[in-house]
Design brief:
alpha+beta, two-stranded antiparallel sheet, single chain, about 45% helix, 6 strands, about 180 residues
Length: about 180
């Protein structure tokens, strides 16, 4: 269990997007969970990786590299982000296995400190393969959070209807009432 609770406003997104969401805005100030190994420990625990990976300085540096690569790919372009994501993916591979349950896969790393970063980059590839148009940034102009739209009709616009969606509705209401 981490020493501090996860302070982020949006958790539970797929690993790649959850990594991007380690930066968020609160009252006009950008917050960053990954400013040290304590924050890394919180992120690892939030994503069920704390038992497998140690929150060390090297793992933090690799995770920051992966976050920058994913940001370039998601908020920029695949052309811009692809070589950066590939640079992270170069540090691991998938090893096919046969288990008592049948065929499986297991990630392998020459240096285990690359594990969390590699898993996040690999998850981004999985999201691209599943539904690239469902990888979204929140529509609120001051929000920097990302989500994977799992709504049935694919029209989710906000990271959270209770937060950003409500703020947008309140802004529209205020603008309409001001016009009267």
């Amino acid at each position: 269990m981490p020493a501090i609770p996860d302070p982020r406003p949006l958790v539970g997104e797929p690993l790649a997007l959850d990594l991007l969401n380690t930066r968020w805005n609160r009252e006009g100030v950008t917050e960053d969970l990954l400013t040290g190994t304590d924050g890394l420990a919180v992120w690892l625990a939030s994503n069920g990786l704390a038992d497998e990976y140690t929150p060390g300085t090297q793992a933090l540096l690799h995770l920051l590299q992966a976050r920058d690569a994913l940001k370039a790919a998601v908020d920029g372009s695949l052309e811009e982000g692809a070589p950066l994501v590939d640079a992270v993916l170069a540090h691991g591979r998938i090893r096919p296995t046969l288990t008592a349950e049948g065929p499986g896969e297991r990630p392998e790393f020459a240096d285990s400190s690359w594990g969390p970063a590699w898993l996040a980059a690999r998850n981004y590839l999985e999201l691209l393969g599943t539904a690239p148009d469902r990888i979204r940034g929140c529509a609120h102009e001051s929000c920097v959070l990302h989500f994977f739209d799992t709504s049935r009709n694919g029209t989710r616009r906000w990271c959270s209807m209770a937060a950003c969606g409500n703020r947008a509705k309140a802004s529209r209401h205020y603008a309409r009432s001001k016009e009267m």
